[in-house]
Hints:
Helix content is about 75%, strand content about 0%. By secondary structure, the chain is an all-alpha fold. It has two domains: about 5-35, no CATH class; about 45-155, no CATH class. The radius of gyration is 22 Å and the shape is globular.
Amino acid sequence: MVKSCDLCCYFNYLQYHHFHVTLTANRRSIWDTSRTSKSNGPPFLLMFSIMLTVVLISPIIEELIFQYFFQRVFLPTLNISRNIIVQKYVSIISPTLLFILSHIITGNISFQSIFIGLITYLPLLFLSILYERTDQNIVYPIAVHILINFMGMISIS
């Protein structure tokens, strides 16, 4: 398996040797360090940027798209039903199903991947209910989503 530092090293090698692009002192030291490094783990900066993206940036963007846009802006304009209770259920379930689909689509869609995705992400229906119950205040679902992703990152590392 190719590590990201190997790809970076190879890219720098191509730039320097084949395309005669001069490396800055900083990139040259990174290249030398990555070539001579004996550590098996990814660099700290890479792990930090992944953690920042997964724990902070992604939950904010996902909640703004799925909760705010779909649940508050898009679905009410469709006038799906005259019954307010049906509209509330549709506005709670639809963003959750879209969220689940966006996370389980990996190019190999099968009954098994959909089933596992539903089991894994269906508890996130709580985020839609929370958004609805807090008078559509987006801060609470974002905070819970950040907490869920943080706990997931802690359990992985």
